[in-house]
Design a protein that fits this description.
By secondary structure, the protein is an alpha+beta fold. The chain has helices spanning 2-18, 123-132; strands at 20-24, 29-33, 38-41, 46-50, 55-58, 63-67, 72-75, 80-84, 89-92, 97-101, 106-109, 114-117.
Length: 135
């Protein structure tokens, strides 16, 4: 029982430290989103941050955008660049659908072709990583 508990704690610690994996459509790892919002590439170099208040920063901590509570995504000038709906639909600023973030973490383009995976990542964060900002 102690070994099982120790193993589960080790797995949980690994997940907390390294976060959730961002992968391509072929499941090759392209990066990570840590639980604190740190965005890393596949080599674990920090590429950006998503703060708890919704501020999106690049690796130099310069603000590049915002995630609003209603799912609106804005650039650094507070101009709307897109929306993430409650059902995972991702829209551009003109409300045209550009993709989907499914509940299982599958990320699809507007034609429903899988472009990646972000299991365990908040749908707004996945949309920011895949559709709105280059990290």
């Amino acid at each position: 029982m102690k070994k099982l508990l120790l193993t589960l704690c080790a797995i949980a610690s690994f997940t907390i430290v390294y976060g959730q994996t961002i992968s391509s459509s072929s499941h090759s790892t392209t990066g990570y989103v840590k639980s604190d919002g740190t965005i890393e590439n596949s080599s674990h170099s920090t590429k950006g941050y998503i703060k708890s208040n919704g501020t999106i920063e690049n690796s130099s901590h310069s603000t590049i955008g915002y995630i609003k509570d209603n799912g609106t995504i804005e650039n650094s000038s507070h101009s709307t660049v897109g929306y993430v709906k409650d059902n995972g639909t991702v829209e551009n600023s003109s409300h045209s659908t550009i993709g989907y973030v499914k509940s299982d973490g599958t990320v699809e383009n507007s034609s429903h072709s899988t472009i990646g995976h972000a299991s365990g990542v908040k749908k707004e964060w996945a949309a920011v990583v895949f559709f709105f900002f280059e990290f």
